[in-house]
Amino acid sequence: MILVTGATGTVGREVVAQLLAAGETIRAMTRNPMRAKLDSRVEVVRGDFEDSASLDNAVRGVDRVFSLTLGPQTGLHEKNLAEAAKAAGVRHIVKLSAMGGDGETKNDIRKWHDEGEQAIRETGIPLTVLHPGAFMSNALHWRETIRAVGKVFSNYGDGKLPPVHPRDIAAVAVRALTSTGHEGKSYAITGPEALTVREQVKILANAVGKRIEYVPVSDEAIRAGMEKAGLPSPLINALLPFGEFIRSGKAARVFPTVEEVAGRQPFTFSDWARENATAFR
Ligand SMILES: NC(=O)c1ccc[n+]([C@@H]2O[C@H](COP(=O)([O-])OP(=O)(O)OC[C@H]3O[C@@H](n4cnc5c(N)ncnc54)[C@H](OP(=O)(O)O)[C@@H]3O)[C@@H](O)[C@H]2O)c1
User: What is the rounded CA–CA span in Å between residue 57 and residue 49?
Assistant: First the structure.
């Protein structure tokens, strides 16, 4: 049995769907089973990364775990999960982490994930770590301004990045969970092409069928928008430096991991935009 955490989120729902398609038996963890809206073939369990007793219950009888959590408490969350998993005899964890520079240039989000990774390693459970770049679905954050004023505001300038379809991240996770040889490995995961936000907006406008203008703005303007939207300050401070990193051109590298591990071509941003066009109308 495989425990999928983060099962109600963007990547987790794809992991659940693909594991079901592969014929696996799945338990899905959520803090609120009543709102989970998961396939009836999935056993849904209430669990919270901050409640160790709930994790003991979630991992009972499980042999593999997909670990997805987020935020500054990631290290503690995955320590709690990994200790419960160790006691239950789990033999493989696949952890969703993030890309992020090396050493001093590591962003905060990657640092939080590294703490979680370290906590899992300390239990000795074989681990596979996924390091995806920016999700294509981040474009959903543009919904409001596209609908309201037909504009996308971004501090990424004309820097390129290769956004990845969440379904492709899940495909790599599912391969790692269901086939041999992935223990001890780390996978950098990107989409197939590096695009500027301007290019993404053009692709999206074609798919949606309306004019959308790209408006480059400063880091400070983005900070003000995040504050207005009520994002917690550790998250704002973690996200803002991506602007400079992407504008510098250092985020443009494409990795062939989806094809190598999942055995098929990754989806393009055009594919994602066509699938999600109605969200922007
Ligand atoms: N967006 C990007 O571009 C990007 C790039 C690289 C890496 N990442 C990483 O991707 C992850 C986010 O993935 P996502 O977008 O699929 O997530 P998401 O859609 O935001 O969903 C978050 C999931 O985490 C669960 N969760 C949150 N807190 C929990 C807690 N205390 N206990 C149990 N479950 C909890 C939620 O479950 P319930 O609410 O049902 O309990 C939900 O299923 C983060 O780790 C992030 O660092 C994101």
Answer: 12
Q: What is the pLDDT of residues 25-75, one digit of tens each?
A: 999 999 999 999 999 999 999 999 999 999 999 999 999 999 999 999 999
The residue nearest atom 36 of ligand 1, judged by CA position, is 6
Q: Whose CA is nearest to atom 23 of ligand 1?
A: 6
**What is the distance in A from the centroid of ligand 1 to the CA of 14?**
13
| Spacing, Cα 77 to ligand 1 middle (Å) | 12
Is the backbone of residue 70 left (phi > 0), alpha (psi -120 to 50) or beta?
beta
31 C-beta closer than 6 A to ligand 1? yes
Residue-wise pLDDT tens digits, 123-153: 999 999 999 999 999 999 999 999 999 999 9
0.90 exceeded by the pTM? yes
